[in-house]
Amino acid sequence: MEAAAGSTEAVTGSVLLGLAVITVAAFTFGRLALKLRQPAVMGEIVAGILLGPTLLGLLPGDLTERLFPEDARPHLQVLAQLGLVLFMFGVGYRLDLTHLRGTGPLVVSVSLSSVVLPFALGSGLAVLFYPWMDRSELAGSGAMGPALFLGTAMSITAFPVLARIIYDRGMTQEPMGALSLACAAIQDVLAWCVLAGVVLAVNAGGSMALARMVIGSVLLVVALLYLVRPALTRLTGPGRRQLKGTPALLAVLVPGTLICAWLTNTLGLHPIFGAFAFGAAVPRKSVEEAASDAPLRIEQMSLLLLPAFFTMTGLSVGFSELGAQGAVMVVCVFFAACAGKFIGATGVAWLHGLCRRDSLLLGVLLNTRGLTELIILNVGLELGLIDTRMFTVMVIMALATTFMTGPLLERLMPRSSSSDIVTAQLPPGLMSPGRRRSRSGHGQAG
Prior knowledge:
single chain, mainly alpha, disordered C terminus
C-alpha cells in the first residue's frame, strides 16, 4: 500500500511539474511568435516540439525523460485529449456556414479543386513512399490506408489558424478574407467527413462492424440535430429560459461535449468527431443570448490544456531519425502540399476571372495548415495509418506551410494596400455590406 501511494505521489508530482514547464514554454514561445507576426498557437506548437527529443532530449541529463517520465505520459495524454475535445467543441460551435449563401460557383470550384488536387498528390506520395514506411507501426497490410489518410491530411486547411491570420491582418471585412474563409469552411467539412470515412473503413474489422459504426454515427447526428438542438433552443430561448447564466449552461455544454466524444470513441471513431458534432449542433444564437461567455469559458479551458497536446505531439517527433530517405520525403511532401493548394486554388480562381495577385493571395491563405493538421496527424498515428517518420515529415510540412503564410502575405499584400483588393469579379455574397453599397451607389451615379 505504501509503495503504491508513493508511486501515485511520484506520478502526480511529475504530471504537475510537466504541466508547469509546458505552460511556461507555451506562453513564452507564443509571445515570441506574436512578435514575429505569427499566430500565438504556432509558437505554442514549436514549444511542444522542442520539449521532446528534437531539442530538450539532445541536451545532457536526459531532461525530456526527467520532465515527462513514461509513467506520467498516459496522464498527460488524458489531459491533452481533454483539451483537444474541448477545442473541437469550439471549432464546431464557431462553424458558421451562413456566409456561404449567395457566394456562387467560385467558392465551390476553388474549394473542390484545392481539396481534390492535394488529395490526389498526397495519395500518390503515400503509395510511392510506402516501401520506406515501417510496417511494424502500420495497422494494415497494404498501402490503401496510408494513401487515403495522407491524401486527407494534405488537403486540409486550418480554419482556426487561417481565421486568426485574417483577423490579425485586418482582412475580416475584405472580400478576399471572406472568400478564403468560405473556401476553408467547405474544405474543413469535406476533410472531416473524408477522415471519418477513412477511420470507419480502417477500424471496422468486417462488414458488420462497419455497418455498426456507420449506423451509430448517423443516429448520433440525427439525435443531435432533431433532439438535442431543439431541446437546447427551448431551454436557452427567451420566455422559457431555464438555462440562464454561465454556470448552468456550462453544466450542460461540457458534459454534452464529453458524452458525445465518448460515444464516437465507443463507436470506433476518434473522440474529436463527437465533440465537433455536438459543438456544431448547439444553437449559437440562443446560447449567446442566455450566457455569451459560456462557450468562451470552454475555449479558454481548452487553450489551457492544448499545450499538453502539442508536447505529446512533440514527444513523437524525431528529426534525428529522418535520415536521407526522410529528407527526400520532406522535400517531396512540402512541394506537393504547396503545389496542390497553389495550383488548385490559384488556377481555378484565375480561370474564374480574379486577377493574378488575388488568385495568388487565395492560394497562400488556403495553404495554411497548423493546428488542424496536427490533430489529424495524431489521429493517423494512433490508428497506425502512418509511421513515426511520416508523422515527423508531415509535422514539418504543416509548420513550414503555416509559417510561410505571413511573409508571403506581406509580399503580395502590404498592410498599407490591404483595402485595395479587387472586388469586381467576386460574387455579392463575399462582399461586406459597405462594399456592396458603394458599388451599388457607383452604378446609380453612372
